[in-house]
Each structure stands twice: as C-alpha cells, then as structure tokens.
Amino acid sequence: MAISADVLASALQDLAPGYSETFMKWHPVFEKIVARGGVQTKDLQGPYKQFTVVTQGPGSTTEVVYGSELVKGGRKQVASSGTSYAPRLIHAFDVPRKELDEANGAQDLAKILEKYPELAMGEFHEQIASQLATGAGANNLGGFLTLNGGIGNTGAGNTYNPGGIGARNGLFEMAATASQAGVVHALDKASVTGWENQYAASAGFATDGRRKMREVFYSCSRQGKTRGKVDIILADEASYHNYLEDLEDFVQVGSVENDHSPADVRQGVKFMDATMWLEDAIDTTNAAFAAAGGLSTGTSPGVMYFLNSKTFHAYTLSGEGGGGYFKTSGPFRIPEQDLFRYEIILYMGLYCDQLRANGVITGTALA
C-alpha cells in the first residue's frame, strides 16, 4: 500500500514542534537561550528588531554631607539603540514519488522520515552552525549572524548581509579593544563607549594559552556583572585538543549537560565556570578569518569564542505555529521530475546586547 505525499506532509506537521526543539538544543548557544526562555516569537510585523543597549552603568552617585546637596541623576545617558535583521531561510528537500509508492505501512513511513526530513534538519542545523562560527556565507546563509567579525570595519572585516540590506560586521573583532572600529548591530564601536568585545592573542598554547584563556574569561565576566560569567566557550578542533592535552588525565571529564544530542557531535569540558565545546563548524582554513592578531587569510592558528549566553537573544518573526518558526510546507510536485518537494521555513534572528561581556582568543591552535 503506497503512502501519499499528503500523508508524509501531515506527519511532518505533527513532528515539526519536536524537530524545532531538537534543532535548537543541538547547539550550545541556542540550547542556553531556549533553557532560559530567551526565544521571542511574535506575529510578523517587519524584517527587523530594535533593542536597547546600555553599555555602562546608567546612574550617578551623590555624597550627602549637609543634606542640601542636589542629588545627581538622569544625566548619564549611556543607552543606545541597536537593530537586528532576521533572514528568511527555506531549506528544501525532495522525496522521490517512487519511494512513496513502494512504501508499505508505518515502518516504511518512519524510514522515509529518517532518510529525508530528519537528515535535512540535521544538514540545516550544521549549515547555520557553520555560518554562526565561521561566517563565510556558504550554502546561501550569508544573511545569518556570524560571531566572526574579522578585523573590523566592512572594508576589512568579516560581514554578513541579512535580507539584502547591506554588509554588517560580525560580532567579535579580533583586535585589541582600544583599536576596534567595526559597526555591530548598527552601533559604531568608535563612538559608543563600552561597545567592544574582549580579545587576546596567544603565542602558542604551551606558551601562554591557559593564561590568555583566564585573562579573557575574567575580562568578560567582570563586564557581565549582573548578567553573570562566561558560560560557553566554542573552540576549533585543534584548540580544543590542545586544551585537553594540557589538562591532567583525571580532570579530562566531558560534560553531560547536552546529553540529548548525539555524543559524537559536540563534546564539552569545563574551564573555570564555563563549558568549552568542540565546535567543528569553526573552519580555521577558511578565508573568512582574515589577517589580524596572528591570523593569516585561510590559515588561522586557532579561535576560541568566549560567550555569556545571557547577553544573547533570539527572535522569530512569526507567532507559535506561524509562517517562520520551523514551519513545514508542501508537497509540491517538481515539474518534469518524479519528485515531491517539502520545505522547512525559518525566519529567525539572533543578537547580542552586551558585547563587552564576550570575547575571542586567537592563536590557541599553535602548540
């Protein structure tokens, strides 16, 4: 008994909520955001989100000696307005009608679901993870946010282009805080005090790797204050192994916090109060890592991102069950081919409202 394309579509609709949860929890950053309820869904109102950034303490202090002093307040204006644009992403996959016609019963339907939509969701996830970590714009994902800001402004740094509005800098600039000059979320680092990320360059892991990691961890965590400390570190594979080999054998214990995802996808190990994750989506051979701070184009000697997940926020431009949060559509018959096409639609943006509580290290893949 054949399985119709509409039956497969119905099964996809039923499984969509589970797919979306699995997708978000497959990545440490998205997992943390979901865990604290940080994904904001709303009805489609426009392609972007505007948010407030407070880069310093907004208050003033007055010492009272006689009781007649004027209390200072409301005069320290340190709030700025940032913007984030969400790209609309459609991941399409085709299912041969012949395979549907030859299917027989629930078991064959389950096998089709495993071979097509589930593998498609996994591929979609890895493509987004690659754009987030490396930012090369591969797989037509050049509009999604990237952590890799290269060396700064749009002329020299690494960029992404959400919705075709124009190039925007990646979040983290690989340069000393005093010399950072990029424009992140439409806020210019050169003119907005406190709007920069922490940075350090290691001369080699055996030389000063652990020291540079501590320096950036404490620099970020001091800036975080009420937001807490760095809790996620994403490292390329060589940097991750250098850190593991630098540890005593008895403390090389992997994190089981992310146990709902396959154990061979990402493995976590503790550093200070954070969990370091092996992020193989950081492609250190990609030219997106431009020359700066010990980097040379396409031959990066290692990257570690230090993230305070409480400063990251995700939003979708649709309500629950709307047209942009892992909505599935189809089937569509492909003209002149014996195929049905299905689509996974994601209309999601990601932004950071405290750059100074996050940082990056380069050079950690060097021995």
Written account of the structure:
With 367 residues, the protein is an alpha+beta fold. The protein has helices at 5-25, 28-35, 97-102, 105-133, 205-224, 237-246, and strands spanning 39-41, 48-54, 79-85, 88-96, 159-160, 168-169, 183-184, 187-188, 198-201, 232-235, 254-255, 268-271, 274-278, 303-307, 312-316, 325-333, 339-352, 359-362. The protein has a 7-stranded mixed sheet. α1 (5-25) packs across α4 (105-133) and α5 crosses α6. The model is unreliable at 256-264 (pLDDT under 50).
Summarize this structure as a short list of keywords or feature phrases.
5-stranded mixed sheet, globular, 367 residues, 6 helices
In terms of per-residue confidence, which ranges show pLDDT below 50 for 5 or more consecutive residues?
Answer: 256-264
Beta-strand fraction estimate: 15-25%
Instruction: Give the C-alpha Rg.
Output: 23 Å
Note the main sheet.
7 strands, mixed
User: Helical stretch count?
Assistant: 6
Count of individual beta strands:
18
The CA-CA distance between the termini, in Å, is 60 Å
Backbone structural class: alpha+beta
Order of helices and strands: HHEEEEHHEEEEEHEHEEEEEEEE
Query: What average pLDDT do the residues reach?
Result: 81
**Helix content estimate:** 25-40%
Strand arrangement within the widest β-sheet reads 9-18-14-10-13-12-11
